[in-house]
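Operator note (shift B, R.M.): manual run for Lycopene cyclase domain-containing protein requested after the automated queue skipped it. Running by hand, logging everything below so the morning shift can see what happened. Input copied straight from the record, untouched. If output looks odd, do not overwrite the archive copy; leave it for review.
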Amino acid sequence: MTYALLCLPFLAAAAALTLLSARRPRFGRRMAASAVAALVLLGLTAVFDNAMIAAGLFTYPESHLIGVKVGLAPIEDFAYPLSAAFAVPAILVLLPERRRR
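Run finished. Output pasted below as returned.
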């Protein structure tokens, strides 16, 4: 199994959760904030994954990668921060509101 196949469920879940939250208030504002968060997380992932791979902290078997890289980091590494940037706000808005005491 390739790392790209492992990423697909996370990306699909993030997309589904985001679509489910589309009818909640301030969807556009939330998407803008998620996009900014995604850019920041992707930038941090690029910097730190490259640094850790260059330092020899870990490697990836080439046979499990699709071959596209950002520096030394495989493109598959960027699926998780992208998923998190959109899924976490969607989950929070989909959860029932707590009653204030």
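Quick read of the result: The chain has a mean pLDDT of 92. DSSP finds three helices and two strands in the chain.
Leaving this for review. - R.M.
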